[in-house]
Amino acid sequence: MSHPPGSVNQVSHDEVLVRARGLTKRFGDFTAVDGIDFDLYRGEAFGFLGPNGAGKSSTMRMIGCVSPPSGGVLSILGRDPVRDGSAIRARLGVVPQEDTLDVELTVRENLLVYGRYFGLPRRIIRERTDALLDFVQLSDRAGDKVDPLSGGLKRRLTIARSLINEPEILILDEPTTGLDPQARHVVWDRLFRLKQRGVTLILTTHYMDEAEQLCDRLVVMDHGTFAAEGSPRDLITRYCSPEVLELRFGPDEHELAADKLRDFPAERAEVLADRILLYVTDGDDALAAVRATGLEPLTSLVRRGTLEDVFLRLTGRRLEDLCWPPPRPWPAGAHPRDPCALSSAG
Amino acid sequence: MYRRIWRSSIWSSVLGPLFYLGALGLGLGTLVDRHGPVATASLGGVSYLAFVAPAILASGAMNAAMSEASYPVFGSVKWNRIYIAAQASPLRPGDIFRGHLMFMTMRITMNAALVTVYMWAFGAIQSAWAVLAWPAATLTGLAFAAPIAAWAVTVKAETSFAYLFRFGMMPLMLFSGTFFPLSQLPGWLRVLAYVTPLWHGVNLCRMLSLGHVDLPVALANVAYLTALAAVGIWAGARSYRRRLYV
Q1: What is the interface pTM, i.e. ipTM, of the complex?
Q2: Which residues does chain B have within 8 Å of residue A94's beta carbon, measured at their own beta carbons?
Q3: Is the backbone of residue B99 left (phi > 0), alpha (psi -120 to 50) or beta?
Q4: Contacts of residue A77 in chain B, CB cutoff 8 Å?
Q5: Same domain for A157 and A252?
Q6: What does the DSSP assignment read for B200-230?
Q7: A50 and A158: one domain?
Q8: Interchain proximity B89–A101, CB inside 8 Å
Q9: pTM value?
Q10: Which of A67, A114, A133, B125 could connect to A61 by a Cys-Cys bridge, CB 3.0–4.6 Å?
Q11: pLDDT tens digits for A83-125?
């Protein structure tokens, strides 16, 4: 279910839906969001890319009008989120990072209760429920309890629920974290269709492929600020070489090779725990040159630059490393379903 | 504005008071009443069943309030995160608080209605005033539910609730003139009991159920409970906002 790159919907650059200037969020001494500026236009899909603790979720909560900014200016749909929060929220859809479904109710009842939160008449909710369940392909589970549904189905239900008020802006906080690849593709496909229908999407993610698939424009966020901004393609051209050579050596040779390759005539070399990345113009030439120095990698791969490389370049860290640490015992209070909860500060 | 479909754990509320009334009213009551006029005199000349039944009504309302306003409120933030879902809608924290409080009050009223019917069935009611014991019990429950919910939403670890039940509910149950008249307590403890909210609820329900209504005292009871509920409602809107809008 892949889509052609580039967007097919109309982005209206005249109409700014969200405007932030010097937007800041502090929790005590900790600054989660540190004076960011951005404009979101109607119809676009805008992504916040970054590791946990970068300030993405804090930004989402401020846009969702459930977290008052500590400083700066924020305007959503032309209104002030602190004063008109309720009226703004009536026009937003929110897909939170962790599902907040009522698991003891059925699929249909979840939509009914949620629609009632928005003060919608039952008749309207009933009509929309049928269409929405059809849209997320859950019609045949309408009468089922939510609890036994798989993670992917729950996510689709959460998305359906967030659309009950026909929102103009849909805010998605890590929409596919914790889903298996197939379930992620289904979610992406539905989100892509929403975008085509003209719904403005704001999403956070730490998946590069997700950002590449869905976002017209994205910002790389780190330590509460924007490290870079642009379309996925822009960012790759700007911050990454045309090709990347990935080399894997045996555990004994890894450091030796790393030392040798530091002086290698590549645009840049990145030494990871398990691999060495060389940013070069031509991967095959570079591989030949590496072999010429007497190094023989166990495996090698020549690929094009990706957002992952952009992120590595900008923050010096790998996104996935930051989110998916090796399994460890859960401290009290952390939700076992969400490994990121351990480190998420923002 | 704010609606909610909720599964009810009906069994504990149906059978709980029935066991209490049965065991205390009939079991313990027979023992007490057997001592004749000496014992019943300190109860105000009524049977133990008639004495204890309205107290079970009032303390049942307190128990219902405490269980509805503690874990469910905490869980709506931490476990099933219903508040977090509701928060994304136009509802404000104060709406969420008052909506949930309405639900709690409904549960308390349903429980109280049931106990009142039991009381009638057991022959524990001695006056038509008892009809008012039902709303009085509801008010007692609300006086507990509102402040407890206001506090529960701020709770960080669920162990706090164990303290509430151990050091709040238990002593109140035992020392608020529930199972024995306050006159049996030493003076200083009696004064302490007059300050606690449950005594006001018990006293109010008992006066109504027995038909011995002392109007100034009854009004004082109502005023005390109403004030407590009002403070809780005021505090809840604030604590919910602080907790949910971070």
Answers
A1: 0.85
A2: 88
A3: alpha
A4: none
A5: no
A6: HHHHHHHHHHHT---HHHHHHHHHHHHHHHH
A7: yes
A8: no
A9: 0.85
A10: A67
A11: 999 999 999 999 998 889 988 889 999 999 999 999 999 999 9
